[in-house]
Protein: UPF0295 protein WDJ61_04245
Organism: Bacillus kandeliae
Amino acid sequence: MAKNYSSKINRIRTFALSLIFIGFIIMYVGIFFRQSPLAMTLFMLLGFLCIIASTVVYFWIGMLSTKAVQVICPSCEKPTKMLGRVDMCMHCKEPLTLDQNLEGKDFDEKYNKKK
Ligand SMILES: [Zn+2]
């Protein structure tokens, strides 16, 4: 996988990775219900669904990364990718914005939401 994704993409990737772990844990718990085939099947199915969801999220990251804008951070002068109107530099956590109206304002996730 390509590196240098924005902090937002990194966060989504962490979420996808944890989904895989949760899926495996649920499947593992299912082993303790061997006496009840119904419960075991349910746990296995639930764990499998988590892993499927994680795959979907990974696919979504791929889509998002093509939309990310590459910018040079004004603070550390390293290239970083940003998503949406505001994002953080992935090297120095400097808040970045593409919107001139928001320049100088405090970093706020809500600027990304559509009104
Ligand atoms: Zn930076």
Summary: Residues 73, 75-76, 78, 89, 91-92, 94 surround zinc ion (CB under 6 Å). Residues 7-67 form one domain.
